[in-house]
TrEMBL record:
Pfam families recorded: PEP-CTERM
Entry protein name: PEP-CTERM protein-sorting domain-containing protein
Native organism: Nitrosospira multiformis
Keyword entries, A-Z: Signal
Domain Ice-binding protein C-terminal: 215-233
The keyword Transmembrane helix is assigned to this record: no
Length: 240
């Protein structure tokens, strides 16, 4: 039976979780989230502006599939009780749009899970993934796969200690995730309204580890370990 231990270290403005485990295979992933943050440099930047409302192939080669109630593309105006546009800051928007908008609600098309999921089949294997994660809720989940094999996931609780669905500037984070194992599919899901996101960044395999590590001004750090045993994943978190 594998053993797992979790250690918590808290410093000013940084939340760090480390998990050590004994298993045949392990995965380590690092999440960095900050309000007004930006993706790493030299990435592929996808804004989903031209994506069909039914999904399909994006301009950067990501195949998008919608599943569930009200899962799909969205844009202003917000729909009360269902979804709200992520809050955009011009510091990162210039990487995704030729004419960056001023700070405020996302003026372009974005994606929502509704009560369901959005699947992003990537055009290759990657070890870095960035996204603008709007109005973060505790029940929002971002899962990473190799084909149909789940590798690891993060929830809104890994992004902020107050994942309360704030629709203002303090509720949207740019989230950067790196992994020591390659993935080729990402699924955003939520059992309640809703998980809104936009502005996905990808770095191809071969991007230097230094480039990936140089993620600007992280507001939250969490290092998670996952054991892959008998085709299943178990995760142990001990808070405190």
């Amino acid at each position: 039976m594998p053993t797992k231990k979790t250690m918590i270290h808290v410093t000013t403005g940084v939340f760090f979780t480390a998990m050590s485990l004994t298993s045949s295979v392990s995965v380590a992933a690092l999440i960095s989230a900050s309000i007004g943050g930006v993706p790493i440099g030299n990435a592929v930047y996808e804004n989903f502006n031209s994506l069909s409302s039914s999904g399909g192939l994006s301009s950067k080669g990501i195949y998008v599939t919608f599943n569930g109630i009200d899962s799909g593309t969205a844009a202003l105006p917000d729909v009360s009780g269902k979804y709200a546009a992520p809050y955009v800051v011009s510091a990162s928007d210039h990487l995704f749009n030729d004419i960056p908008q001023e700070d405020g609600p996302d003026l372009t098309q974005y994606l929502v899970t509704g009560i369901g999921s959005v699947t992003l089949d990537l055009n290759a294997y990657h070890q870095y993934f960035g996204l603008l994660w709007g109005s973060v809720d505790s029940y929002n989940t971002l899962s990473f796969y190799d084909g149909n094999t789940l590798l690891f996931n993060f929830t809104g609780l890994d992004v902020t200690h107050l994942p309360n669905g704030d629709r203002g500037a303090n509720g949207t984070f740019y989230v950067n995730i790196t992994s020591d194992i390659k993935f080729n599919k990402v699924i955003a899901s939520s059992p309640h309204y809703s998980f809104e996101f936009d502005n996905v960044a990808l770095a191809a395999i071969g991007t230097s580890s230094q480039e990936i590590q140089e993620i600007p001004e992280p507001g939250t750090l969490a290092l998670l370990g996952f054991g892959l045993l008998a085709g299943s994943i178990t995760r142990c978190k001990k808070w405190g």
